[in-house]
Amino acid sequence: MSIVRVTKEFSFEAAHALWNYNGKCKNLHGHSYKLSVTVKGKVKDNPNDPKTGMLIDFGDLKKIVTDSIVDVFDHAVIINKSASYGKFKESLEIFDRLIITDYQPTCENMVVDFADRISRKLEPEVKLYSVKLHETANSYGEWYAEDN
């Protein structure tokens, strides 16, 4: 049986600020993120399995990514825990989706976080192959299992 890869794409809107950064991105700003998730494995070939012919049901992959990433990060403000974010917490009417991270919320660190969140939810026979996170139309970070 051959190994195949399948990919599902997602999008969400979020804002972030880069703490202690020496450029414009130290200011609160937003992005229209595009996320591509690729998994790999062997296609199910049990004729009694309703998902025969699939590596993973696209709906199952959608649920994993939506529940663990899109629904969490969409329209959220993402701030490094080292930054002073007290005023955000005081303004919950406009910052009620505040995510405080242990990491600098760069595209690179976010793609690593997302890969970890997704890989923990996959069935053992389905392996995460890659995660690509577009921060802008022409800038993105990638995570590959073979590199980690």
Overview of this structure, please?
This protein is 23% helix and 36% strand. By secondary structure, it is an alpha/beta fold. It has a single domain, classed as Tetrahydropterin Synthase, Chain A (2-Layer Sandwich), CATH 3.30.479.10. The chain has a six-stranded mixed sheet. A hairpin with a 2-residue loop joins strand 5 (127-136) and strand 6. The protein is elongated and about 60 Å long.
Name the descriptors.
6-stranded mixed beta sheet; elongated; 148 residues; alpha/beta; Tetrahydropterin Synthase, Chain A
The amount of beta strand, in percent, is 35-45%
Number of strands: 6
CATH class assignment:
Alpha Beta
Shape: elongated
CATH topology: Tetrahydropterin Synthase, Chain A
Strand order, sheet with most strands: 4-3-1-2-5-6
Tell me the number of helical segments per DSSP (H or I, 4 or more residues long).
3
Q: Spell the H/E element sequence.
A: EEHEHEHEE
The CATH homologous superfamily name equals 6-pyruvoyl tetrahydropterin synthase/QueD
Note poorly predicted spans: none
Distance N terminus to C terminus?
Answer: 25 Å
Give me the secondary-structure category: alpha/beta
The residue-averaged pLDDT reads 93
Main sheet attributes: strand count, strand direction, barrel closure: 6 strands, mixed
**CATH architecture verdict:** 2-Layer Sandwich
Q: How many discrete structural domains?
A: 1
Q: In which range does the helix fraction lie?
A: 10-25%
Alpha-carbon Rg, integer = 17 Å
